[in-house]
Amino acid sequence: MPVVNFDYYDLLSLLGREVSREELLEKIPMMGVCIERFEGNEISIEVFPNRPDLLSVEGMARALRAFLGIEEGLKKYDVAPPKISLHVEKSVEKVRPFIAAAIVRNVEMNDEIIASLMEVQEKLHFSVGKDRKKMAIGVHDFDKVTPPFVYKGVKPNEIKFVPLGKEEEMDLNEILEKHEKGIAYAHLIKHSDLYPIILDKNGNVLSFPPIINGELTALNEYTKNIFIDVTGTDMNAVLAALNIVATSLAERGGKLEQVEIIGKKKIITPDLTPQENEVSIDYIKKILKIEDEKEILKSLLKMGHDVVKEGNKIKVYSPVWRVDILHAIDLIEDVAIGYGYEKFEDMLPKAMIFGSSFSHDRIHQTMIGLGFNEVVTLSISSPEKEFEKMGIAGEAVEIANPISSEHSILRQSLLPSLLEILSKNRHNDLPQQIYEIGDVVIFEKGRAKQKTFLAGVKIDAKTGFTECKSVVEAILRNLGYKMDVEEKMHGSFIEGRCASIMVNGMEIGYFGEIKPSVICNFGLEYPVIAFEIDLSKLLPSFYE
Fold first, then answer.
1. Per-residue pLDDT tens for 286-317?
2. What domains are defined for the chain?
3. How many C-beta neighbours within 10 Å does residue 167 have?
Protein backbone atom coordinates (compact mmCIF):
# COMPACT_ATOMS: atom_id res chain seq x y z
CA MET A 1 0.00 0.00 0.00
CA PRO A 2 1.20 3.57 -0.69
CA VAL A 3 3.05 5.38 2.07
CA VAL A 4 2.76 9.17 2.26
CA ASN A 5 5.44 11.30 3.92
CA PHE A 6 4.93 14.83 5.20
CA ASP A 7 6.11 17.37 7.75
CA TYR A 8 4.35 17.73 11.10
CA TYR A 9 4.43 21.54 11.04
CA ASP A 10 3.22 21.64 7.43
CA LEU A 11 0.25 19.52 8.52
CA LEU A 12 -0.46 21.89 11.44
CA SER A 13 -0.42 24.91 9.13
CA LEU A 14 -3.05 23.23 6.94
CA LEU A 15 -5.14 22.15 9.95
CA GLY A 16 -5.24 25.73 11.21
CA ARG A 17 -4.96 24.55 14.81
CA GLU A 18 -2.32 23.26 17.16
CA VAL A 19 -2.63 19.48 17.55
CA SER A 20 -0.15 17.60 19.70
CA ARG A 21 1.90 14.68 18.44
CA GLU A 22 0.17 12.48 20.99
CA GLU A 23 -3.29 13.39 19.69
CA LEU A 24 -2.27 12.72 16.09
CA LEU A 25 -0.80 9.36 17.08
CA GLU A 26 -4.14 8.50 18.68
CA LYS A 27 -6.58 9.97 16.11
CA ILE A 28 -5.01 9.21 12.71
CA PRO A 29 -5.27 5.40 13.07
CA MET A 30 -8.93 5.82 14.06
CA MET A 31 -9.58 7.27 10.58
CA GLY A 32 -8.72 3.93 8.99
CA VAL A 33 -5.07 4.58 8.06
CA CYS A 34 -1.84 3.42 9.67
CA ILE A 35 1.05 5.49 11.01
CA GLU A 36 4.22 3.85 9.76
CA ARG A 37 6.64 6.24 11.42
CA PHE A 38 6.59 9.49 13.41
CA GLU A 39 10.16 10.58 14.02
CA GLY A 40 11.09 14.18 14.70
CA ASN A 41 8.89 16.27 12.43
CA GLU A 42 8.44 13.61 9.72
CA ILE A 43 5.24 11.55 9.55
CA SER A 44 4.83 8.49 7.32
CA ILE A 45 1.29 7.19 6.84
CA GLU A 46 0.21 4.02 5.03
CA VAL A 47 -3.00 4.63 3.08
CA PHE A 48 -5.40 1.92 1.98
CA PRO A 49 -6.22 1.85 -1.78
CA ASN A 50 -9.85 2.84 -1.20
CA ARG A 51 -8.84 6.32 0.07
CA PRO A 52 -6.69 7.98 -2.63
CA ASP A 53 -7.90 11.37 -1.34
CA LEU A 54 -5.54 10.85 1.63
CA LEU A 55 -2.45 10.47 -0.56
CA SER A 56 -1.30 14.03 0.14
CA VAL A 57 -0.75 16.13 3.24
CA GLU A 58 -3.51 18.45 1.97
CA GLY A 59 -6.02 15.60 1.73
CA MET A 60 -5.01 14.28 5.14
CA ALA A 61 -5.41 17.74 6.68
CA ARG A 62 -8.87 18.16 5.12
CA ALA A 63 -10.03 14.80 6.48
CA LEU A 64 -8.51 15.51 9.92
CA ARG A 65 -10.22 18.89 10.18
CA ALA A 66 -13.59 17.17 9.84
CA PHE A 67 -12.63 14.21 12.05
CA LEU A 68 -11.32 16.43 14.87
CA GLY A 69 -14.38 18.71 14.70
CA ILE A 70 -12.41 21.72 13.41
CA GLU A 71 -14.44 21.94 10.18
CA GLU A 72 -17.15 19.27 10.05
CA GLY A 73 -19.26 18.40 7.04
CA LEU A 74 -18.71 18.68 3.30
CA LYS A 75 -15.76 20.88 2.30
CA LYS A 76 -16.79 23.30 -0.44
CA TYR A 77 -14.51 25.14 -2.86
CA ASP A 78 -15.32 28.10 -5.07
CA VAL A 79 -14.78 27.14 -8.72
CA ALA A 80 -14.66 29.83 -11.41
CA PRO A 81 -16.35 29.06 -14.75
CA PRO A 82 -14.11 28.21 -17.73
CA LYS A 83 -12.22 30.92 -19.58
CA ILE A 84 -10.11 28.61 -21.73
CA SER A 85 -10.77 25.50 -23.79
CA LEU A 86 -8.99 22.27 -24.65
CA HIS A 87 -9.91 20.60 -27.95
CA VAL A 88 -9.75 16.80 -28.23
CA GLU A 89 -9.12 15.40 -31.71
CA LYS A 90 -10.42 12.03 -32.92
CA SER A 91 -6.82 10.88 -33.49
CA VAL A 92 -6.34 10.01 -29.78
CA GLU A 93 -9.38 7.71 -29.56
CA LYS A 94 -7.49 4.46 -30.06
CA VAL A 95 -4.46 5.20 -27.88
CA ARG A 96 -5.55 7.34 -24.88
CA PRO A 97 -9.04 8.73 -25.41
CA PHE A 98 -9.92 10.56 -22.18
CA ILE A 99 -8.72 13.86 -20.81
CA ALA A 100 -9.76 16.32 -18.10
CA ALA A 101 -8.13 19.56 -17.01
CA ALA A 102 -8.19 22.39 -14.48
CA ILE A 103 -6.47 25.69 -13.74
CA VAL A 104 -5.39 26.71 -10.24
CA ARG A 105 -4.53 30.40 -9.96
CA ASN A 106 -2.65 32.46 -7.40
CA VAL A 107 -0.71 29.62 -5.82
CA GLU A 108 1.96 30.79 -3.39
CA MET A 109 4.56 28.24 -4.50
CA ASN A 110 7.11 26.91 -2.02
CA ASP A 111 9.20 23.80 -1.44
CA GLU A 112 6.41 22.08 0.54
CA ILE A 113 3.87 22.51 -2.27
CA ILE A 114 6.27 21.27 -4.95
CA ALA A 115 7.24 18.25 -2.84
CA SER A 116 3.60 17.45 -2.07
CA LEU A 117 2.60 17.76 -5.74
CA MET A 118 5.37 15.40 -6.81
CA GLU A 119 4.40 12.87 -4.14
CA VAL A 120 0.65 12.90 -4.80
CA GLN A 121 1.30 12.47 -8.53
CA GLU A 122 3.56 9.49 -7.89
CA LYS A 123 1.11 7.84 -5.46
CA LEU A 124 -1.91 8.42 -7.70
CA HIS A 125 -0.04 7.07 -10.72
CA PHE A 126 0.69 3.90 -8.77
CA SER A 127 -2.73 3.41 -7.15
CA VAL A 128 -5.57 4.95 -9.17
CA GLY A 129 -3.53 5.02 -12.39
CA LYS A 130 -2.28 1.41 -12.21
CA ASP A 131 1.24 2.60 -13.04
CA ARG A 132 -0.05 5.22 -15.53
CA LYS A 133 -2.08 2.73 -17.59
CA LYS A 134 -5.50 4.04 -16.52
CA MET A 135 -4.47 7.66 -16.01
CA ALA A 136 -1.46 9.96 -15.85
CA ILE A 137 -1.17 13.50 -14.47
CA GLY A 138 0.65 16.53 -15.83
CA VAL A 139 1.14 19.81 -13.93
CA HIS A 140 2.38 22.88 -15.78
CA ASP A 141 3.32 26.52 -15.34
CA PHE A 142 0.27 28.00 -17.08
CA ASP A 143 1.94 31.36 -17.76
CA LYS A 144 4.57 29.75 -20.04
CA VAL A 145 1.99 28.70 -22.68
CA THR A 146 -0.90 30.22 -24.61
CA PRO A 147 -4.42 28.73 -24.72
CA PRO A 148 -6.49 27.30 -26.30
CA PHE A 149 -4.91 23.86 -26.02
CA VAL A 150 -5.29 20.81 -28.23
CA TYR A 151 -4.99 17.11 -27.39
CA LYS A 152 -4.27 15.02 -30.45
CA GLY A 153 -2.37 12.09 -31.92
CA VAL A 154 0.81 12.69 -33.95
CA LYS A 155 3.33 10.49 -35.76
CA PRO A 156 6.36 9.46 -33.65
CA ASN A 157 8.81 11.64 -35.59
CA GLU A 158 6.46 14.54 -36.31
CA ILE A 159 7.20 16.66 -33.23
CA LYS A 160 10.34 17.54 -31.27
CA PHE A 161 10.54 19.16 -27.84
CA VAL A 162 12.78 19.31 -24.76
CA PRO A 163 11.42 16.74 -22.25
CA LEU A 164 11.42 17.46 -18.53
CA GLY A 165 14.86 17.20 -16.96
CA LYS A 166 16.74 17.36 -20.30
CA GLU A 167 18.41 20.10 -22.34
CA GLU A 168 18.24 18.79 -25.91
CA GLU A 169 15.22 18.37 -28.16
CA MET A 170 14.02 14.84 -28.93
CA ASP A 171 11.28 13.47 -31.13
CA LEU A 172 8.75 11.12 -29.56
CA ASN A 173 10.54 7.94 -30.64
CA GLU A 174 13.81 9.23 -29.21
CA ILE A 175 12.10 9.95 -25.89
CA LEU A 176 10.79 6.38 -25.74
CA GLU A 177 14.24 5.00 -26.50
CA LYS A 178 16.51 7.37 -24.52
CA HIS A 179 14.59 9.09 -21.72
CA GLU A 180 14.30 7.08 -18.50
CA LYS A 181 10.53 7.71 -18.33
CA GLY A 182 10.16 6.82 -21.99
CA ILE A 183 11.94 3.52 -21.49
CA ALA A 184 9.78 2.73 -18.43
CA TYR A 185 6.40 3.54 -19.98
CA ALA A 186 6.83 3.01 -23.72
CA HIS A 187 4.77 -0.20 -23.53
CA LEU A 188 1.64 1.87 -22.78
CA ILE A 189 1.54 3.49 -26.23
CA LYS A 190 3.96 1.53 -28.47
CA HIS A 191 1.03 -0.40 -29.98
CA SER A 192 -0.35 2.77 -31.59
CA ASP A 193 0.57 4.41 -34.91
CA LEU A 194 -0.07 7.84 -33.38
CA TYR A 195 1.17 9.11 -30.01
CA PRO A 196 -0.83 11.51 -27.78
CA ILE A 197 0.41 15.06 -27.33
CA ILE A 198 -0.91 18.27 -25.72
CA LEU A 199 -0.04 21.51 -27.53
CA ASP A 200 -0.80 25.18 -26.96
CA LYS A 201 -2.00 27.72 -29.52
CA ASN A 202 1.57 28.26 -30.79
CA GLY A 203 2.48 24.59 -31.09
CA ASN A 204 4.44 24.45 -27.82
CA VAL A 205 4.39 21.02 -26.16
CA LEU A 206 2.92 20.83 -22.67
CA SER A 207 2.92 17.07 -22.35
CA PHE A 208 3.56 13.75 -24.08
CA PRO A 209 1.20 11.63 -21.94
CA PRO A 210 1.58 9.26 -20.21
CA ILE A 211 5.37 9.57 -20.63
CA ILE A 212 6.76 13.02 -19.79
CA ASN A 213 5.97 16.74 -19.64
CA GLY A 214 7.87 19.40 -21.51
CA GLU A 215 10.71 21.28 -19.81
CA LEU A 216 9.05 24.53 -20.96
CA THR A 217 6.22 24.25 -18.40
CA ALA A 218 8.23 22.88 -15.45
CA LEU A 219 7.13 24.29 -12.09
CA ASN A 220 9.48 26.46 -10.04
CA GLU A 221 9.33 28.75 -7.03
CA TYR A 222 8.08 31.62 -9.23
CA THR A 223 5.08 29.71 -10.63
CA LYS A 224 1.77 31.40 -9.78
CA ASN A 225 -0.80 29.76 -12.03
CA ILE A 226 -0.91 25.99 -12.63
CA PHE A 227 -2.53 24.03 -15.46
CA ILE A 228 -3.37 20.40 -14.65
CA ASP A 229 -4.06 17.77 -17.30
CA VAL A 230 -5.08 14.18 -16.63
CA THR A 231 -5.23 11.74 -19.54
CA GLY A 232 -6.07 8.06 -19.58
CA THR A 233 -8.01 5.04 -20.71
CA ASP A 234 -10.58 5.16 -17.88
CA MET A 235 -12.67 8.31 -17.46
CA ASN A 236 -13.57 7.57 -13.83
CA ALA A 237 -9.88 7.33 -12.91
CA VAL A 238 -9.10 10.51 -14.89
CA LEU A 239 -11.79 12.55 -13.12
CA ALA A 240 -10.92 11.16 -9.68
CA ALA A 241 -7.25 12.09 -10.06
CA LEU A 242 -8.05 15.59 -11.34
CA ASN A 243 -10.40 16.28 -8.42
CA ILE A 244 -7.83 15.10 -5.88
CA VAL A 245 -4.91 17.10 -7.29
CA ALA A 246 -6.94 20.28 -7.97
CA THR A 247 -8.50 20.37 -4.51
CA SER A 248 -5.13 19.66 -2.89
CA LEU A 249 -3.85 22.89 -4.46
CA ALA A 250 -7.05 24.68 -3.40
CA GLU A 251 -6.22 23.63 0.17
CA ARG A 252 -3.01 25.65 -0.29
CA GLY A 253 -5.01 28.76 -1.14
CA GLY A 254 -5.15 28.34 -4.93
CA LYS A 255 -8.25 29.50 -6.81
CA LEU A 256 -9.89 26.80 -8.93
CA GLU A 257 -10.97 27.50 -12.49
CA GLN A 258 -12.70 25.09 -14.83
CA VAL A 259 -11.61 24.16 -18.35
CA GLU A 260 -13.96 23.49 -21.26
CA ILE A 261 -13.10 20.14 -22.86
CA ILE A 262 -14.39 20.01 -26.46
CA GLY A 263 -14.43 16.57 -28.08
CA LYS A 264 -17.19 14.19 -29.11
CA LYS A 265 -19.19 16.02 -26.51
CA LYS A 266 -18.46 19.09 -24.43
CA ILE A 267 -17.67 18.71 -20.72
CA ILE A 268 -16.54 21.13 -18.04
CA THR A 269 -13.90 19.99 -15.55
CA PRO A 270 -13.38 19.83 -12.63
CA ASP A 271 -16.98 19.22 -11.58
CA LEU A 272 -17.11 19.21 -7.78
CA THR A 273 -20.87 18.59 -7.51
CA PRO A 274 -21.30 16.32 -4.46
CA GLN A 275 -22.33 12.69 -4.83
CA GLU A 276 -25.84 12.09 -3.51
CA ASN A 277 -26.71 8.83 -1.75
CA GLU A 278 -29.38 7.62 0.62
CA VAL A 279 -29.13 5.26 3.59
CA SER A 280 -31.81 3.90 5.92
CA ILE A 281 -31.46 4.71 9.62
CA ASP A 282 -32.90 1.27 10.45
CA TYR A 283 -30.21 -0.32 8.27
CA ILE A 284 -27.49 1.55 10.17
CA LYS A 285 -28.99 0.53 13.52
CA LYS A 286 -29.24 -3.09 12.41
CA ILE A 287 -25.60 -3.25 11.32
CA LEU A 288 -23.95 -1.12 14.02
CA LYS A 289 -26.42 -1.27 16.93
CA ILE A 290 -26.18 2.53 17.38
CA GLU A 291 -29.56 3.77 18.59
CA ASP A 292 -28.80 7.50 18.97
CA GLU A 293 -29.73 9.11 15.63
CA LYS A 294 -27.87 12.33 16.51
CA GLU A 295 -24.68 10.30 16.92
CA ILE A 296 -25.23 8.75 13.50
CA LEU A 297 -25.60 12.15 11.84
CA LYS A 298 -22.61 13.59 13.73
CA SER A 299 -20.46 10.60 12.70
CA LEU A 300 -21.15 11.27 9.02
CA LEU A 301 -20.29 14.96 9.47
CA LYS A 302 -16.98 13.93 11.08
CA MET A 303 -16.19 11.93 7.93
CA GLY A 304 -16.67 14.96 5.67
CA HIS A 305 -20.25 14.39 4.45
CA ASP A 306 -23.26 16.70 4.59
CA VAL A 307 -26.48 15.07 5.80
CA VAL A 308 -30.22 15.75 5.63
CA LYS A 309 -32.58 13.55 7.66
CA GLU A 310 -35.81 12.77 5.79
CA GLY A 311 -38.08 10.55 7.86
CA ASN A 312 -36.35 7.21 8.38
CA LYS A 313 -33.71 7.92 5.75
CA ILE A 314 -30.61 10.08 5.59
CA LYS A 315 -29.71 11.86 2.38
CA VAL A 316 -25.92 12.00 2.30
CA TYR A 317 -23.90 14.43 0.17
CA SER A 318 -20.35 13.14 -0.26
CA PRO A 319 -17.34 14.93 -1.81
CA VAL A 320 -16.33 13.79 -5.30
CA TRP A 321 -12.83 12.94 -4.09
CA ARG A 322 -14.33 10.17 -1.91
CA VAL A 323 -14.26 7.65 -4.77
CA ASP A 324 -14.73 4.80 -2.28
CA ILE A 325 -18.39 5.67 -1.64
CA LEU A 326 -20.23 3.24 -3.91
CA HIS A 327 -23.02 1.81 -1.74
CA ALA A 328 -24.96 2.44 1.46
CA ILE A 329 -22.66 0.03 3.28
CA ASP A 330 -19.72 2.37 2.58
CA LEU A 331 -21.58 5.13 4.39
CA ILE A 332 -22.28 2.76 7.28
CA GLU A 333 -18.54 2.08 7.49
CA ASP A 334 -17.98 5.84 7.73
CA VAL A 335 -20.57 6.02 10.52
CA ALA A 336 -18.61 3.34 12.40
CA ILE A 337 -15.29 5.19 11.91
CA GLY A 338 -16.77 8.56 12.86
CA TYR A 339 -18.53 7.08 15.90
CA GLY A 340 -15.33 5.33 17.01
CA TYR A 341 -14.59 1.62 16.90
CA GLU A 342 -13.39 1.81 20.49
CA LYS A 343 -16.99 2.53 21.60
CA PHE A 344 -18.42 -0.72 20.28
CA GLU A 345 -18.90 -3.54 22.75
CA ASP A 346 -17.21 -6.87 22.13
CA MET A 347 -19.66 -9.56 21.02
CA LEU A 348 -19.24 -13.28 20.60
CA PRO A 349 -20.75 -15.01 17.53
CA LYS A 350 -24.33 -16.16 18.12
CA ALA A 351 -23.73 -19.51 16.42
CA MET A 352 -20.77 -21.84 16.17
CA ILE A 353 -19.69 -22.54 12.60
CA PHE A 354 -17.36 -25.42 11.80
CA GLY A 355 -15.48 -25.76 8.52
CA SER A 356 -15.46 -28.85 6.36
CA SER A 357 -12.76 -31.45 6.93
CA PHE A 358 -11.59 -31.12 3.33
CA SER A 359 -9.08 -28.42 2.41
CA HIS A 360 -7.08 -27.44 -0.63
CA ASP A 361 -3.82 -28.50 1.02
CA ARG A 362 -3.39 -31.59 -1.15
CA ILE A 363 -3.94 -29.56 -4.33
CA HIS A 364 -1.50 -26.87 -3.24
CA GLN A 365 1.13 -29.46 -2.33
CA THR A 366 0.66 -31.13 -5.71
CA MET A 367 1.01 -27.87 -7.64
CA ILE A 368 4.09 -26.82 -5.68
CA GLY A 369 5.58 -30.27 -6.26
CA LEU A 370 5.04 -29.79 -10.00
CA GLY A 371 6.97 -26.52 -9.86
CA PHE A 372 4.03 -24.07 -9.98
CA ASN A 373 3.79 -20.85 -7.97
CA GLU A 374 0.43 -19.79 -6.55
CA VAL A 375 -1.13 -16.44 -7.44
CA VAL A 376 -4.38 -14.76 -6.37
CA THR A 377 -6.20 -12.47 -8.82
CA LEU A 378 -9.34 -10.33 -8.75
CA SER A 379 -12.78 -11.90 -9.27
CA ILE A 380 -13.83 -8.78 -11.19
CA SER A 381 -12.74 -8.53 -14.81
CA SER A 382 -13.64 -6.96 -18.17
CA PRO A 383 -15.20 -8.25 -21.43
CA GLU A 384 -11.99 -7.32 -23.26
CA LYS A 385 -9.84 -9.56 -21.06
CA GLU A 386 -12.33 -12.41 -20.66
CA PHE A 387 -13.52 -12.65 -24.25
CA GLU A 388 -11.78 -10.44 -26.84
CA LYS A 389 -8.20 -11.24 -25.83
CA MET A 390 -9.07 -14.92 -25.37
CA GLY A 391 -10.57 -15.12 -28.87
CA ILE A 392 -13.95 -16.39 -27.66
CA ALA A 393 -17.55 -15.24 -27.31
CA GLY A 394 -19.57 -15.64 -24.14
CA GLU A 395 -21.68 -14.03 -21.46
CA ALA A 396 -20.87 -12.91 -17.97
CA VAL A 397 -22.58 -11.34 -14.98
CA GLU A 398 -22.36 -7.57 -15.35
CA ILE A 399 -21.79 -5.18 -12.45
CA ALA A 400 -24.48 -2.50 -12.28
CA ASN A 401 -22.23 0.41 -11.23
CA PRO A 402 -18.63 -0.53 -12.09
CA ILE A 403 -15.86 1.75 -10.86
CA SER A 404 -14.06 1.28 -14.20
CA SER A 405 -14.36 -0.50 -17.55
CA GLU A 406 -11.65 -2.94 -16.44
CA HIS A 407 -13.82 -4.09 -13.53
CA SER A 408 -17.27 -4.36 -15.09
CA ILE A 409 -18.06 -8.11 -15.01
CA LEU A 410 -17.49 -11.17 -12.83
CA ARG A 411 -14.88 -13.48 -14.32
CA GLN A 412 -16.01 -16.73 -15.92
CA SER A 413 -12.52 -18.23 -16.16
CA LEU A 414 -9.21 -17.98 -14.30
CA LEU A 415 -7.05 -18.25 -17.43
CA PRO A 416 -7.28 -14.59 -18.63
CA SER A 417 -5.96 -13.34 -15.28
CA LEU A 418 -3.13 -15.89 -15.29
CA LEU A 419 -2.13 -14.86 -18.83
CA GLU A 420 -2.19 -11.22 -17.73
CA ILE A 421 0.23 -12.03 -14.91
CA LEU A 422 2.57 -13.72 -17.41
CA SER A 423 2.31 -10.55 -19.50
CA LYS A 424 3.37 -8.39 -16.56
CA ASN A 425 6.36 -10.67 -15.93
CA ARG A 426 7.78 -10.68 -19.46
CA HIS A 427 11.03 -9.27 -18.12
CA ASN A 428 11.62 -12.35 -15.92
CA ASP A 429 13.42 -15.53 -17.01
CA LEU A 430 11.64 -18.57 -18.47
CA PRO A 431 10.11 -20.98 -17.72
CA GLN A 432 7.32 -19.40 -15.69
CA GLN A 433 4.46 -21.50 -14.33
CA ILE A 434 1.68 -20.26 -12.07
CA TYR A 435 -1.64 -21.55 -10.79
CA GLU A 436 -4.71 -20.32 -8.94
CA ILE A 437 -7.65 -21.81 -7.06
CA GLY A 438 -10.48 -19.29 -7.24
CA ASP A 439 -14.17 -18.63 -7.75
CA VAL A 440 -15.80 -17.84 -11.08
CA VAL A 441 -19.40 -17.23 -12.13
CA ILE A 442 -20.63 -19.07 -15.21
CA PHE A 443 -24.01 -19.55 -16.89
CA GLU A 444 -25.56 -23.00 -16.84
CA LYS A 445 -29.03 -23.47 -18.38
CA GLY A 446 -29.51 -19.72 -18.42
CA ARG A 447 -28.69 -19.24 -14.73
CA ALA A 448 -25.56 -17.80 -13.17
CA LYS A 449 -23.73 -20.23 -10.90
CA GLN A 450 -20.66 -19.74 -8.72
CA LYS A 451 -17.96 -22.37 -9.22
CA THR A 452 -14.49 -22.99 -7.85
CA PHE A 453 -11.84 -23.64 -10.49
CA LEU A 454 -8.22 -24.72 -10.48
CA ALA A 455 -6.22 -23.32 -13.39
CA GLY A 456 -2.55 -23.25 -14.35
CA VAL A 457 -0.39 -21.89 -17.14
CA LYS A 458 3.21 -22.37 -18.18
CA ILE A 459 5.25 -20.32 -20.65
CA ASP A 460 8.47 -21.71 -22.08
CA ALA A 461 10.24 -21.99 -25.42
CA LYS A 462 9.81 -25.78 -25.58
CA THR A 463 6.55 -26.53 -23.75
CA GLY A 464 3.67 -28.31 -25.47
CA PHE A 465 0.53 -30.46 -25.34
CA THR A 466 2.27 -33.60 -24.03
CA GLU A 467 3.75 -31.79 -21.03
CA CYS A 468 0.38 -30.22 -20.21
CA LYS A 469 -1.31 -33.65 -20.35
CA SER A 470 1.26 -35.10 -17.92
CA VAL A 471 0.72 -32.19 -15.48
CA VAL A 472 -3.05 -32.66 -15.44
CA GLU A 473 -2.68 -36.45 -15.05
CA ALA A 474 -0.38 -35.91 -12.06
CA ILE A 475 -2.88 -33.55 -10.38
CA LEU A 476 -5.78 -35.97 -10.75
CA ARG A 477 -3.68 -38.99 -9.76
CA ASN A 478 -2.69 -37.27 -6.50
CA LEU A 479 -6.38 -36.58 -5.83
CA GLY A 480 -7.27 -40.22 -6.46
CA TYR A 481 -8.83 -39.97 -9.92
CA LYS A 482 -8.09 -41.56 -13.30
CA MET A 483 -8.28 -39.25 -16.28
CA ASP A 484 -9.55 -39.88 -19.80
CA VAL A 485 -9.31 -37.36 -22.63
CA GLU A 486 -11.47 -36.41 -25.59
CA GLU A 487 -10.74 -33.94 -28.38
CA LYS A 488 -12.15 -30.47 -27.70
CA MET A 489 -12.66 -27.32 -29.75
CA HIS A 490 -11.97 -24.13 -27.79
CA GLY A 491 -11.43 -20.68 -29.27
CA SER A 492 -8.43 -19.93 -27.04
CA PHE A 493 -6.50 -23.10 -27.94
CA ILE A 494 -4.80 -24.42 -31.07
CA GLU A 495 -7.12 -26.71 -33.01
CA GLY A 496 -6.11 -30.34 -32.49
CA ARG A 497 -4.05 -29.47 -29.40
CA CYS A 498 -6.87 -29.09 -26.89
CA ALA A 499 -8.60 -31.88 -24.96
CA SER A 500 -11.44 -32.31 -22.49
CA ILE A 501 -10.56 -33.72 -19.07
CA MET A 502 -12.94 -36.63 -18.45
CA VAL A 503 -13.50 -38.32 -15.07
CA ASN A 504 -16.08 -41.11 -14.83
CA GLY A 505 -17.53 -40.05 -18.17
CA MET A 506 -18.02 -36.42 -17.11
CA GLU A 507 -16.12 -33.42 -18.46
CA ILE A 508 -14.54 -31.53 -15.56
CA GLY A 509 -12.17 -29.27 -17.50
CA TYR A 510 -9.83 -28.91 -20.43
CA PHE A 511 -6.16 -28.37 -21.29
CA GLY A 512 -3.89 -27.71 -24.24
CA GLU A 513 -1.72 -25.21 -26.12
CA ILE A 514 -2.86 -21.57 -26.28
CA LYS A 515 -3.34 -20.08 -29.77
CA PRO A 516 -0.57 -17.78 -31.07
CA SER A 517 -3.14 -15.00 -31.60
CA VAL A 518 -4.19 -15.17 -27.93
CA ILE A 519 -0.54 -15.24 -26.87
CA CYS A 520 0.06 -12.06 -28.90
CA ASN A 521 -3.08 -10.40 -27.46
CA PHE A 522 -1.44 -10.60 -24.03
CA GLY A 523 1.91 -9.32 -25.32
CA LEU A 524 3.66 -12.69 -24.93
CA GLU A 525 6.21 -14.19 -27.31
CA TYR A 526 6.64 -17.86 -26.36
CA PRO A 527 4.42 -20.97 -26.34
CA VAL A 528 1.94 -21.24 -23.47
CA ILE A 529 0.16 -24.33 -22.14
CA ALA A 530 -2.88 -24.04 -19.89
CA PHE A 531 -5.48 -26.10 -18.07
CA GLU A 532 -8.63 -25.37 -16.12
CA ILE A 533 -10.50 -27.81 -13.85
CA ASP A 534 -13.93 -27.35 -12.26
CA LEU A 535 -13.33 -28.42 -8.65
CA SER A 536 -17.08 -28.08 -8.03
CA LYS A 537 -17.56 -31.13 -10.28
CA LEU A 538 -14.47 -32.98 -9.11
CA LEU A 539 -15.27 -32.56 -5.39
CA PRO A 540 -19.01 -31.79 -5.32
CA SER A 541 -19.58 -32.61 -1.64
CA PHE A 542 -17.05 -29.97 -0.58
CA TYR A 543 -18.62 -27.20 -2.65
CA GLU A 544 -22.31 -27.89 -2.04
1. 999 999 999 999 999 999 999 999 999 999 99
2. 3-67 (3.30.56.10), 79-269 (3.50.40.10), 275-343 (3.30.56.10), 361-543 (3.30.930.10)
3. 7
